[in-house]
Write a structure and sequence with these properties.
The complex is a heterodimer of chains A (491) and B (319). Chain A has a domain at 378-487: Sandwich (Immunoglobulin-like), CATH 2.60.40. Chain A has 15 helices and 14 strands. Chain A has helices at residues 45-63, 102-122, 125-130, 132-148, 151-159, 164-189, 195-203, 209-229, 231-237, 240-244, 259-262, 285-289, 309-321, 333-340, 352-373, and strands at 80-83, 88-91, 94-96, 254-257, 328-331, 378-384, 391-392, 398-408, 414-421, 427-430, 439-441, 445-455, 464-472, 479-487. In chain A, the strands form 4 sheets. In chain A, strands 6, 7, 8, 10 and 12 form a 5-stranded antiparallel sheet that branches. Chain A has a 4-stranded antiparallel sheet with strand order 11-9-13-14, with no helix packed on it. Chain A has a 3-stranded antiparallel sheet with strand order 1-2-3, with no helix packed on it. The longest helix of chain A has 26 residues, at 164-189. Chain A is elongated, with a radius of gyration of 33 Å. Chain B has helices spanning 34-53, 75-111, 113-130, 132-135, 159-168, 193-206, 214-232, 258-267, 282-293, 302-311, and strands at residues 17-22, 25-28. Chain B has a two-stranded antiparallel sheet with strand order 1-2. The chains are: A alpha+beta (491), B mainly alpha (319). Chain A binds chain B through residues 385-388, 391-396, 399, 401, 427, 429, 431-432, 434-435, 447-448, 450, 452, 454, and chain B through 110-111, 113, 116-117, 120, 136-140, 147, 149-152, 246, 249-251, 294-297, 311-312, 314-315, 317-318. Chain A: GO terms for molecular function: 4 iron, 4 sulfur cluster binding; metal ion binding. Chain A: The chain crosses the membrane at residues 49-67, 101-122, 175-193, 205-226, 355-373.
Chain lengths: 491, 319
């Protein structure tokens, strides 16, 4: 990351406006009490986009558990479901068993790579628009604004002495926050049980204790993280601001103050000339709008989440004073320097870094897709008895016992044929099954079979010989096999 | 307060000291965090409430009992109730097992996958609790304690025979216990040591463990005919009526080394198995019998045997 200090010298004789960058690293002290931030409402394309994105994200979060997906009669019909009781994860057409958790790992790796790519291209777009902390904080600030008014009114209210009106506003705000927090925690648990059943059971007090525990837990965390902690989560708790610097470079777009255009800044009266000065009139609209309590004009900083609200705020001012928009804009560090040097800016989206992230993401996605497409619906495991290791029979034959697990991941009951490859003299006996008959496994179930292999004394060649169990579904031709050994003792 | 005057403030940290001093080292008085203190006080209050409601204080020395508390709580009773609940919950399954065993024997249990799973699970847990001590965790046996996995049965290996053995035991106190006794030929002075060595030779020859010896083929064979053949049979294949082991198979309950065989003849083994009918309920014994039978060595009933032989010669278990 570019660490060149581009902080401008303050133009002399300019009176500071009320907006302070209270969360600025240079001014905040290590042990000081949190300075409240009162972000001012802005209007503009970025603000509009954030409202739309918030509606979509929250809508998805609340609606998704109720979306149905038909998987046949033997499986739940909830599109997205983490079914702990039956150890299954359902995601639309994907069904994952516990031993296939690497699909989830793959998904997380893919998500991380896409995050790297997005960061290398457009800076902290995840933090600014999509992170749940941002979305819920934004929503909580909107609620606060609804009850207490915009920035100045909120500041005044907090300074005002106790009164009925103040209490009414504060209590209403916290009540609505709690309702939203409860709805957040409430929706979270819907992903772990059938949503419709759970809503009913939850309200009648019949849901599992874990549901209530997680409901309370997530209500509490939502309320505190989005309501009272806000920017502190991003500044102190979240590791991503520390990591993301490694993903960006001088050619990554970032929310930036264009020093080349803005400086020297200073107050400007209508009609005054713009010659010999920068476009920044030091109105601090960007500082007032910032939910993180920083001054974007101080250059790139860890606290900035790239929410772009300062762009809207500044554009509004530029329109009013009749200067071109984009004094604060998505801009690269490189271009700012180029302009300062009088060179033309350039934008390169295809760079070694973006290529690297993009290709890696494509490879991971390809592996994941191939894995999912080739996912078998039949698996086989064989555990040989260890105690006793082998059984010597009266006529000198040797018998081994195996627990053979057949995993039928299909949505229908299936009949399988079990066969054994290895020594041709093996006598195969399946407990509870007639010899030569098919083994029936219910839909989406694992079934254990006790299998005994016996070798007559003349056929035993060595103390241990390989055995391969094979199951085949004659209907579809799908087969699975597993290797183990047959122990015949020390001879 | 008079104490105020004596307040000793540490110069470096500005923190008050406790006033204790050891060789010039003073302890700073950093008070406990408030929340910690409150939790501490709350714990004290809670302990008093606990003592009122729950069993807490043991009686004075020399006296019995304890303060029972207002809630009348006993963990012993909770365990008792939990076990009773478990029993009730399993009742229907055990009833089905009993019924299936009574009507169709082991075949009926094997034919029903759900019942089979239940019988194996119930049998496994009962085996671990009661039988594994002697027969081993997997029923693999030990010297003097039969291996239950193989097809060798001293007293019969059908489901009903195993069940009966479990119920009445072997050489137990039960009046119908399976009973027999091999004489202690050496200990009771019935045979000389040379004679015992000779008969051991003979038996080991019969089993194919050693080449024939002169003593074995003369003295040994003669003694075997008069002393052993009555129970173990002229062909030495044993007799289940009296629990006499087959001496020509591959299995030696008391070991196949020469000194082990000599020792068996010398002292006359007297293996005892308790009569479990006295300690375990009927359904548990049924589950245990099914479990042991299904370890792999169970013998089909004669009735089912013909059918099985017809179908699967490989399953011709233990004759």
């Amino acid at each position: 990351m570019n660490l060149i200090d581009r902080r401008p010298q303050m133009a002399p004789g300019i009176a500071r406006s009320d907006a302070e960058a209270v969360n600025d690293k240079d001014t905040r002290e290590l042990y000081q009490k949190r300075e409240p931030i009162y972000p001012k409402l802005v209007k503009g394309p970025f603000r509009r986009f954030k409202w739309i994105f918030m509606a979509l994200a929250l809508g998805l979060y609340y609606v998704l558990p109720f979306v149905r997906w038909d998987r046949g009669p033997n499986a739940p019909d909830q599109a997205v479901l983490v079914d702990f009781a039956n150890a299954r994860f359902y995601f639309f057409f994907i069904e994952i068993w516990p031993q296939e958790v690497y699909y989830i790992t793959g998904l997380l790796i893919l998500a991380a790579l896409l995050l790297f790519l997005a960061t290398a291209l457009f800076g902290r777009v995840w933090c600014g628009y999509a992170c749940p902390q941002t979305v819920w904080t934004d929503l909580f600030i909107a609620v606060e604004r609804f009850f207490e008014g915009d920035r100045n009114k909120r500041m005044k209210l907090d300074k005002a002495p106790r009164s009925f009106d103040k209490a009414r506003k504060k209590i209403s705000k916290h009540a609505v926050w709690l309702v939203i927090a409860a709805a957040t925690g409430g929706a979270w648990i819907l992903y772990f049980y059938d949503a419709f059943d759970l809503v009913e059971n939850f309200l009648t007090g019949e849901a599992a204790l874990t549901s209530y525990v997680f409901f309370v837990l997530l209500t509490f965390t939502t309320y505190t993280l989005a309501g009272t902690m806000r920017e502190q989560v991003c500044t102190y708790m979240c590791p991503w601001p520390r990591i993301q610097a490694a993903m960006t470079d001088r050619e990554a777009l970032n929310v930036a103050y264009r020093v080349d255009r803005g400086e020297p800044r200073g107050a400007h009266k209508a009609g005054d000339s713009w010659e010999g000065r920068g476009d920044c009139i030091d109105c601090k609209a960007c500082v007032a709008a910032c939910p993180m309590g920083i001054d974007i004009r101080n250059g790139p900083q860890l606290e900035c989440i790239g929410c772009a609200l300062c762009i809207d705020a500044c554009n509004d001012i530029m329109d009013k004073v009749g200067r071109p928009r984009g004094l604060i804009a998505y801009e690269t560090d490189d271009n700012i320097d180029r302009r300062l040097k009088g060179e033309t800016p350039r934008y390169r989206f295809i760079r070694v870094r973006t290529l690297y992230y993009g290709i890696t993401a494509l490879i991971v996605a390809g592996i994941m897709l191939a894995g999912l497409l080739n996912r078998t619906e039949l698996e086989l495991n064989a555990d040989r008895d260890r105690n006793p290791n082998y059984v010597m029979l009266s006529d000198g034959s040797v018998r081994n016992g195996y627990t053979v697990k057949v995993l039928n991941k299909a949505g229908t009951e299936r009949d399988f044929v079990l066969s054994v490859e290895g020594n041709p003299a093996f006598d195969v006996r399946v407990l509870g099954e007639e010899t030569g008959e098919t083994l029936t496994v219910d839909a989406d179930e694992t079934r254990d079979f006790r299998v005994f292999l016996t070798l007559p004394p003349g056929a035993i060649d060595s103390a241990s010989e390989p055995v391969t169990f094979v199951v085949e579904d004659p209907a579809s031709g799908e087969r699975a096999e597993t290797q183990t050994v047959f122990q015949a003792g020390g001879r | 307060m008079a104490e105020t005057d004596k307040k000793d403030i540490d110069a470096h940290t500005g923190v008050e000291t406790t006033g204790h001093e050891w060789d010039g080292i003073k302890e700073l008085n950093n008070p406990l965090p408030r929340w910690w203190l409150w939790v501490f006080y709350a714990s004290i209050v809670w302990s008093v409430i606990y003592m009122i409601f729950m069993p807490a204080i043991p009686a004075l020395p020399g006296m019995q009992g304890y303060t029972p508390g207002l809630r009348d709580h006993t963990e012993r009773e909770n365990v008792h109730n939990a076990l009773a609940d478990l029993q009730t919950a399993r009742e229907p399954q055990f009833e089905r097992l009993q019924q299936a065993a009574a009507e169709g024997g082991i075949e009926a249990i094997e034919a029903d996958p759900e019942l089979l799973r239940f019988a194996l699970a119930a049998g496994d847990s009962a085996f671990g609790d009661n039988c594994a001590t002697c027969h081993g965790e997997g029923g693999q046996g030990a010297i003097g304690y039969p291996n239950l996995n193989d097809d060798i049965w001293l007293w019969g290996g059908t489901f009903d025979e195993i069940r009966h053995t479990l119920e009445v035991g072997i050489r137990s106190d039960h009046p119908e216990a399976r009973y027999s006794q091999m004489p202690a030929y050496g200990a009771d002075g019935l045979l000389e040591r040379q004679e015992i060595n000779a008969v051991a030779d003979h038996v080991m020859t019969l089993a194919g463990l050693i080449e024939p010896t002169e003593a074995g083929e003369t003295t040994g064979a003669e003694i075997y005919e008069f002393q052993c053949a009555a129970c173990h049979g002229v062909d030495a294949t044993g007799d289940r009526m009296v629990g006499a082991p087959n001496l020509v198979d591959n299995y030696w309950l008391y070991g196949s080394e020469r000194e082990q065989i000599v020792n068996s003849i010398w002292r006359g083994p007297f293996g005892v198995m308790p009569n479990w009918g006295e300690r375990l309920n009927d359904p548990t014994i049924t589950a245990l019998a099914a479990y042991v039978y299904l370890l792999g060595g169970g013998e089909p009933d004669e009735f089912a045997e013909a059918a099985l032989l017809d179908r699967d010669p490989g399953g011709e278990a233990g004759q």
